[in-house]
Here is the input.
Amino acid sequence: MIVLKYIAFALTSIIVGLLFMGLGRKYSARIHRRYGPPFWQSYLDVIKLFSKTSISHHWVMDFGIMMGLAGILATIAFLPIGPFHLFNSMNGNIIIMLYFMTIGYLGMAMGVSASGNPNSAIGIARALTLMLGYEIPFVIVVISLIFINKSSLLSVMVANQAGGFLHWNMIRYPLGFIAAEMALQGMLGEKPFDAMIAPSEIASGPMVELSGKMMGLGFLQHAAQIFLETAIITSLFLGGSSNVWIFFLKMFVLYLVSLSINAVSARFKFENAVKWFWKWPMALSLAQLLIVIL
Here is the structure.
């Protein structure tokens, strides 16, 4: 039974993540005064990629790409999706989730680095450096919420936000929410924090050597990451929801905010992006931590 529930969780995250990507592409196109592709284009892209032959340079490359997707899907197993959850005793343990998320990122890094393309190595080096920028303030925000709720479980944090909009952590702890939103922009890899992709500089970086099924797996990992990261912020700050459709709606609104910033922003140099994360989100997260402690 638990295996079937996990498969349902994994499929839900991928299907909803691909839907967000498709709607997001349409939304970004309209901001740029373009028509854009249909919202179902993301599903067609995945089908097309898995129907093509893949080029592999090493078995480590194949294993790393699969490990990247598996790490994100393993993290989703601990994620409460509205009223649904997989493990009763660890219903959204944010500490475990942060650990498993790292496995997903490092799996992708291992896979694309094994391709031997220097642009892939540059892209991964930039991505891992950027992680050092946004993960630290985000973890400080999480520590603040753990201290407030005296629990690391997302289910407890969601329950403590019951009672309406004014009880959401977004309203009660605005500095932490702003810092988390800044970190989310980096997690999603949206402008101005997309230097690891930079097609005009490093030919899309990590994705330059991916083709066919390997590119399809990377596509699915990105869709699952969108689902996972927006769901975490929704549970931490937007009160979650006992209705799964409202939960998805809150996630989508967060994603649209990120895409709105992406559509009107220029790209930071990755070293400037790290400095920016250590300056503004770090200051806000530390201020929030001091406020909740004192």
About this structure: The mean pLDDT is 88.
